[in-house]
């Protein structure tokens, strides 16, 4: 019996550059991450874990990961990470020495948190913008889910296994989403598939569960669902996801909150000292 929900914060697509460089010549991704870390540290209660769902660096280079590590140092919550298409597995291994990280191949990881399994899947394809879960990764996932004694699981990967309607992102989503779905739908204890890559908050039904895309702390891919438009981005309100798992039902219930990053007016009370609504 869990006395309180298990809280998993998900941040995505940090795109950290070398110090002093702006992403696309315009976006200060380092300042955006600093504001994001402050927002994570301010959460009460504290999340149990932060999942970073890919595109940690931008080019990528050793210098970018060193900068990222510096920017994450003030984070007061343990974090885990999986590569995106802007990352390098080798540079990530060197930058984040962690016994949970595989020593070779895809960065698939299992992180048990009390009653919950947090599963990270490496959908990156070296040198390519699109995603794919290779046969070994799918077998690994199948083995984890079948051996878990029906522990509820949240799965995280960089590339969404579904279309968003934004054409230039959909052509680089998870190529073998159908193979992934075949595994996921066999295990009803998978309660969430959390992706990144599109820099926008999105939700859909997938393989008998719920799939989301986590927004970014920096720039958003422009929302345009027309068939052809020039790929572009906007600076929209930055945000991240907070997934709360509550016990209940066969495998618990997950609710995903969109958490805006910034300084906002409030909180203000609803009720006065007489107990009446103001
Ligand atoms: Fe990204
Ligand atoms: Fe990406």
Automatic annotation (TrEMBL):
It comes from the Bacteria. Keywords: Hydrolase, Iron, Metal-binding. GO terms for molecular function: cyclic-nucleotide phosphodiesterase activity; metal ion binding. Residues 8-200 form the Calcineurin-like phosphoesterase domain. CDD domains: MPP_GpdQ (cd07402). The keyword Hydrolase applies. Belongs to the cyclic nucleotide phosphodiesterase class-III family. This is 3',5'-cyclic AMP phosphodiesterase CpdA. It comes from Rhodopseudomonas pentothenatexigens.
